[in-house]
Amino acid sequence: NTEDDLHLNNSFGDAGLISPDKEDISRILTVPFSGRIRGGMRPGKKIIIMGIIDPEPDSFDISLNCGHSEEKDDEELTDVALKLSARFTERQFLRNARVSGKWSEEEAPIAYFPFIQDQPFRIEIHCEHQRFRIFVDGHQLFDFYHKVKSLLAINMIRIVGSLQITKLG
């Protein structure tokens, strides 16, 4: 355990590990949240995000990023392996990626919009060899094929927007 593991992104106050100590959970899971994915992503690994949508939500984003930067300027250069964006006005759950500073085309179509204001949710991101599989409340919503080639380089998660996080693992 390094000091970096314990204090991740000072620009957001005390963000922390993806599996924090129980007594620190409310302090650590504040939004905006930035945390380390220990060992990066690999096939078979999954990330579970549980939380509650705000009473009057606008949007929220969940990003799986490569690398970690203290510098705001460098944040634009970070590869984003997967960015999930829930837009409540349009009732869309968008996804895309940024590789070498360029965003891929946003993927939009979904069968239904799974999020309800002021209600709990559970998002699971399953990493497979070719793609991420995204589940919301136990229902598979879509696949997102990898744009970032090195899965192990995907070592940060960032969550911002109209939600509270209750559990992250």
From TrEMBL:
<comment type="function">
    <text>Does not bind lactose, and may not bind carbohydrates.</text>
</comment>
<feature type="domain" description="Galectin">
    <location>
        <begin position="33"/>
        <end position="169"/>
    </location>
</feature>
<dbReference type="InterPro" id="IPR013320">
    <property type="entry name" value="ConA-like_dom_sf"/>
</dbReference>
<dbReference type="InterPro" id="IPR001079">
    <property type="entry name" value="Galectin_CRD"/>
</dbReference>
<keyword id="KW-0430">Lectin</keyword>
<dbReference type="InterPro" id="IPR044156">
    <property type="entry name" value="Galectin-like"/>
</dbReference>
<dbReference type="Pfam" id="PF00337">
    <property type="entry name" value="Gal-bind_lectin"/>
</dbReference>
<protein>
    <recommendedName>
        <fullName>Galectin</fullName>
    </recommendedName>
</protein>
<dbReference type="GO" id="GO:0030246">
    <property type="term" value="F:carbohydrate binding"/>
</dbReference>
